[in-house]
Structure formats: structure tokens, C-alpha cells
Design a protein that fits this description.
The complex is a heterodimer of chains A (254) and B (336).
Chain A: E1 5-14, E2 17-27, E3 32-36, H1 43-51, E4 58-63, E5 66-67, H2 73-78, E6 81-83, H3 96-107, H4 122-134, H5 150-163, E7 168-172, H6 184-191, E8 198-202, H7 206-212, E9 215-220, E10 223-228, H8 230-233, H9 237-243, H10 250-253
Parallel strand pairs in A: 3-8, 3-9, 6-7, 7-8
Antiparallel strand pairs in A: 1-2, 1-4, 4-5, 9-10
Chain B: H1 2-22, H2 25-41, H3 46-68, H4 77-94, H5 99-121, H6 126-146, H7 148-151, H8 176-198, H9 200-210, H10 212-217, H11 222-248, H12 258-271, H13 276-296, H14 301-315, H15 319-335
The chains are: A alpha/beta (254), B mainly alpha (336).
The structure holds adenosine-5'-triphosphate (ATP) and magnesium ion (MG).
């Protein structure tokens, strides 16, 4: 059986620094995997390689059995491989409504149309409202992104990913930069993702990771040093060493 | 019941009104009104006003790639010149002197030039892109210069005798027909561009300017957006070039020059990038200054334009239109 998503022997170095070192990973529909690791471990680089924002030195990325390693990022997106960004990438002068509408139109291959306006398409507007409503952004539909709080911008990142109807979703620290007290909404959004979607989430908040994931992959210095269940990860000697005790006890307090 | 239905229909009327306004009705009206004022105020200067109209088309075209998509270029006159030579050569060498057909030929040759420059310029980014665009305009210029059998070289292309518009309106010595023809072209193009920039494609273009990686992460191809915009931009500039050929009945190498490219960029920055109004206002102000000041003092008008540009960049960085619009909306919000 071929996995929905698979990475084989992925390798990338910047100059002499090996940032992704022979990483392999497979996921099935519905999987919830957390990718953790210390700062600079190569997590974002891994997402960049998978999404096509960076070219690997060697190795392969498969989606639905198809080798997508040579495909450009946009083509991978059209096949359902969607990512979010550790630092939000949004259009400052556009509204949440425009963002989500554009994502939907692009998904439906209608974003190239040179006349008309999305607000004239009831089916697009319905979906826009549904998505914004689900994420609690409906009241902000018509504000410009630069006028809304960062936590809400993070939610809009997730809204965009959802509007693209992913099969495989890579979330790079979806709560980064948001105070812990305000992450509830983001966690709700994560919990409301479609059940058959495969999600790989990077996060530093171990409590969140343990609630979200049924499988944890630990990356240290570009190498996968652990791949297993959340309850084993804190017991693992190599993981403890990698974090130098930073997170080693987080599991027991959760 | 009656109340409800009146409510409904007035709401519908309102939204139709808003749609017309968004669709550029106000702008189109403004062009017609300002055009009419110009016609009655400066009846002896219609040639200048027609040239303003042609250049406004060039600056609008530049705004599409620079203002909306964020591509830096100092070679945009290539598209304008291609349109001018296309229409001119069609008339002078192939006897195609029907003005609408000439305009169409200009739009097509402009698009072709847009495609070619787009393919070259979009290979690079930032400074390299700017340098490539300068190379492109020089290559176009040299090509037109060398192909003198077709273009008249440095003597310019003459022998362009446009027929009457619809067989009814002769191009007269005072330039009335040319002026009105240009104004109609500008109005039509403006409305079309209003529709374009509001469309999903227009949103994609703005997205490309703001964050290419996000656009890619939505599954759109940045280069395809840019290239399509370049072709459209070429059609618009080409129409401007054709208008210039039709109204002056000559095409010179200056229509394909680095100077014109740079001036177009100055006009755009002056008026404000990323808005169709800004492009047109910048053109009007620049060319009006050029005309009046160069009459008063032919040596120093560029100094004054330079000073004006410095002032705009420092104190109104979004250009005359962009900064005024921003100021007005802040005032309104402050009150509301
Ligand atoms: N484009 C690049 N050129 C050179 N080095 C890079 C580049 N991108 C990342 N690196 C380096 O690669 C290493 C891994 O970076 P990466 O951003 O993937 O880490 P990360 O695990 O996401 O860290 P964090 O938890 O801080 O987000 C770092 O040492 C970083 O400095
Ligand atoms: Mg990272």
C-alpha cells in the first residue's frame, strides 16, 4: 500500500551545514503528526523542501504515490499539498474575505478570470463566510490585514490552508508569536480540521503537541532521532540529550 | 409588503450604482468632463492634449506591471513604440489606414512586444531586472533604427494618412478628431482596466506584488500572472502608440526610447503607483509642467520637475493621488 504522503532520504545542506540529513517519513490520511525539535533543528527547512520552496540535494517527496520532487511549489499545491508559514505571509492591504475568496477561486481554477468580482459569486461567498465564521473571523471580514491582531492573522493563515482543501497539510508553528493565553482559538481551529486530512504540525508548545498528535517525530541537527508515540518521547534518551532537559519533563506535567 | 419590495429594489439599485461606480463610471465621467474642459479651454493646444492622452495610456500600461505587480522597469516605452510603429507601418507600407484597424494593429504589436520584454525581464529580479529592462529598450531602439527600410530610421516613419473615423470624421488640421478619438480610447481602456484590476486576476496581481511566496502557496504561478499582465500592458501601451501615430502622422525613434521609458516611470511615481487615477494624474501634471515651464524657461523645467519629484517622494510617498486619497480616507475615518 502506498502512503498518502512520503518522504524518502531527503537531504539538504547550506554550504557545509547539513540541515536535512537523510530524513524519511510516511503518513496516511487522517494522521496527526507533530514534528518537534530544538531551534535550528531544520524543521522549517524540511517543510520548505516538502512544499517545493527549496530544492533538496537528494531524496524524494511523494504525494498519493506520485513523485512530486521535481514539481514546482504551485503545482504541489494544486495536488493538495498545502503549507502554512512560521511567520505569517499575508497581503497587508487585503481583507480576510479577499484572502479566502482568492484561495477558493484559485483552488477552483477561476482566479485567472479578468472580469467580474468574487462577491458576485454566491457559492464562493457562502464558502468564504463559512470558513471565516468557523475561525471566528467573520466580524473582521472587511478589515485590512494590517488592522487586525497577530493572533487573528494566524487564524487567517489556517483559514487560507482550509480554503485550499488540502489532502496533506504542513503547519509550521501555527501559534508562533501568539501569547499562550490566546492560543485556544487556534487549537480549536486545529481540532476542527477535516478528520481524513493528514496533518504534520511543527510546534514548540509541548502541551499542545501532546493534545494534538498521536505520533511525534523529533528532529535534531537535521536528523530524525525519534519517531513514535507521544508517551514514549519524553522517556527517550536521545531526545532528552537533544533538548538538554529543556522539554524532557513537559510530558509528565501535561 | 409594498415596503419590503421597495426596500428590496432600492437596495438593488444601490448595489447596481455601487457596481457602476466600482466599474469605473466615475473615472470615465471624470475623463470625459476633464477632456471637455480641456477642449474648450485650450482649443489651440489640442495636439498637446492628444499627446497627453497617448502618454496616459503608456503610463497606465506601466502601472499595470509596476504599480499592480511590482515589476521594476525602465524599458516600458518598448511596448508603446511597438504599437506606434505597428500602426504606422501598417498604414505607410500596407495601406491599412482605417484608424480603428490601425489601433488594433497597435494593440497587437504592443502585446507582442509586451510578451517579448516580459519573457526577458521576468527572468531576473530587483536590480538585475531593472538593468535587463534598460537593455530591452536599447535593443528595441537599435532594431528600429537599423530597420530603416521599414521604420524610416532616425528620419522617422512618415506617410501615415489615416482615413476618416467610421468614414465620417476626417482628421482635421486642428486635431479635433484626433483629440476626441484619443479621449474615447482612453475612456474605453480605463473602464476595461477598472474591471481588470477588480477581477480575480487583478487580485492575483496585487498578491504577486505583496508576497510571491504566498501566491505560490495558493497554487498560482507567479510568472504566468506576470506574463499575462505584460501582454495586457502591451496592448494598452500599443493603443497609446497607435494613437500617437494616428494623431501626429509620424513615428519617431523617440517613441521607443529610454528617455520616454524613464519619463513614464517619473509620471507614474508622481501620480501614485497602483491606482489608475494616479497614473493619469501623474501624466497630466508632468506634461502640463513640461509644456508651460519649458515655454517659460526651456533649460530649467527639468530642474523644477526634479524638485517636484523630490518633494512628492519625500512628503507624499504614495504620489499625488495616493497620498491625497489616503489623507481623505483618514479624515473620514477620524470623523466616523
Ligand atoms: N536559506 C538558508 N541559508 C543558509 N542557512 C539556512 C537557510 N535556511 C535555514 N538555514 C539554517 O538551517 C538551520 C535550520 O533552520 P530551520 O529554519 O529549518 O530551523 P527550525 O528547526 O525551523 O528552527 P526554529 O525552531 O527556530 O524555527 C539553521 O541553522 C539555519 O540557520
Ligand atoms: Mg522553523
Amino acid at each position: 500500500m502506498s502512503a498518502l504522503f512520503e518522504v524518502r532520504n531527503l537531504r539538504k545542506s547550506f554550504g557545509g551545514l547539513v540541515v536535512t540529513n537523510d530524513v524519511s517519513l510516511a503518513m496516511a490520511p487522517g494522521d496527526r503528526v507533530a514534528l518537534i525539535g530544538p531551534n535550528g533543528a531544520g524543521k522549517t527547512t524540511f517543510v520548505n523542501l516538502v512544499a517545493g520552496n527549496l530544492r533538496p540535494d537528494s531524496g524524494h517527496v511523494f504525494l498519493g504515490g506520485e513523485d512530486v520532487t521535481r514539481l514546482k511549489a504551485a503545482k504541489r499545491v494544486r495536488r493538495g499539498l498545502i503549507r502554512s508559514f512560521q511567520v505569517t505571509r499575508l497581503f497587508q492591504d487585503m481583507t480576510p474575505e479577499e484572502h479566502v475568496a482568492l484561495a477558493i477561486l484559485q483552488r477552483e481554477r477561476q482566479a485567472g478570470k479578468m472580469f467580474g468580482h468574487y462577491s458576485g459569486k454566491p457559492e464562493v461567498m457562502d464558502e468564504v463566510r463559512k470558513i471565516l465564521d468557523r475561525l471566528g473571523l467573520i466580524e473582521l471580514s472587511h478589515l485590512k490585514v494590517r488592522e487586525i491582531a497577530y493572533g487573528q492573522q494566524r487564524l487567517l493563515e489556517i483559514a487560507l490552508a482550509m480554503a485550499l482543501r488540502p489532502r496533506m497539510l504542513l503547519l509550521d508553528e501555527p501559534a508562533a508569536g501568539v501569547p499562550q493565553s490566546e492560543t485556544t482559538r487556534i487549537e480549536q481551529a486545529l481540532n476542527s480540521l477535516p478528520p481524513d486530512l493528514a496533518v504534520l504540525m511543527i510546534d514548540h508548545d509541548m502541551d499542545l503537541v501532546f493534545r494534538f498528535a498521536r505520533r511525534v517525530v523529533v528532529l535534531a541537527a537535521g536528523t530524525v532521532i525519534f519517531d513514535g508515540s507521544p508517551k514514549d518521547v519524553t522517556q527517550d534518551q536521545r531526545v532528552r540529550e537533544a533538548y538538554l532537559g529543556n522539554y524532557a519533563n513537559a510530558g509528565s506535567t501535561a | 409588503m409594498t415596503v419590503a419590495s421597495t426596500d428590496h429594489s432600492s437596495a438593488a439599485n444601490l448595489s447596481i450604482a455601487r457596481r457602476l461606480a466600482d466599474g469605473g463610471l466615475i473615472g470615465a465621467l471624470a475623463i470625459v468632463v476633464i477632456g471637455a474642459i480641456g477642449y474648450y479651454l485650450f482649443p489651440n493646444n489640442l495636439a498637446l492634449l492628444t499627446r497627453m492622452t497617448a502618454i496616459a495610456l503608456l503610463v497606465l500600461s506601466l502601472d499595470l506591471v509596476t504599480g499592480y505587480c511590482g515589476v521594476a522597469t525602465l524599458g516600458h516605452a518598448a511596448l508603446f513604440g511597438a504599437g506606434a510603429y505597428g500602426a504606422g507601418i501598417a498604414a505607410a507600407h500596407f495601406g491599412i489606414s482605417e484608424p480603428l484597424t490601425m489601433t488594433l494593429v497597435g494593440a497587437l504589436t504592443g502585446s507582442a512586444a509586451g510578451l517579448v520584454s516580459g519573457v526577458v525581464i521576468l527572468r531576473a529580479h530587483g536590480l538585475a531586472q531593472l538593468v535587463l529592462s534598460i537593455a530591452v529598450i536599447h535593443l528595441f531602439h537599435e532594431a528600429a533604427n537599423k530597420a530603416s527600410a521599414w521604420t524610416g530610421g532616425s528620419d522617422g516613419l512618415s506617410g501615415i494618412m489615416p482615413e476618416a473615423v467610421f468614414g465620417l470624421f476626417e482628421f482635421d488640421l486642428w486635431g479635433q478628431t484626433a483629440y476626441i478619438y484619443g479621449l474615447v480610447l482612453l475612456t474605453v481602456v480605463f473602464v476595461a482596466l477598472r474591471i481588470l484590476v477588480r477581477s480575480p486576476f487583478g487580485m492575483l496581481a496585487r498578491g504577486v506584488r505583496e508576497d510571491r511566496i504566498r501566491i505560490t502557496a495558493m497554487g498560482a504561478s507567479v510568472n504566468s500572472v506576470l506574463l499575462r499582465m505584460y501582454v495586457i500592458s502591451g496592448a494598452v501601451a500599443g493603443i497609446g502608440g497607435a494613437l500617437s501615430a494616428i494623431s501626429t502622422q509620424v513615428v519617431g525613434l523617440d517613441s521607443l526610447s529610454f528617455t520616454l521609458s524613464a519619463e513614464a516611470l517619473v509620471m507614474l511615481v508622481l501620480g501614485g503607483t497602483g491606482s489608475l487615477y494616479g497614473a493619469m494624474i501623474g501624466t497630466m501634471v508632468f506634461m502640463w509642467f513640461e509644456d508651460t515651464l519649458s515655454a517659460i524657461n526651456p533649460f530649467h523645467w527639468l530642474t523644477i520637475i526634479g524638485a517636484l519629484l523630490v518633494a512628492v517622494v519625500l512628503f507624499a510617498p504614495k504620489g499625488l493621488y495616493g497620498s491625497t486619497a489616503g489623507f481623505v480616507s483618514r479624515l473620514r475615518r477620524g470623523r466616523g
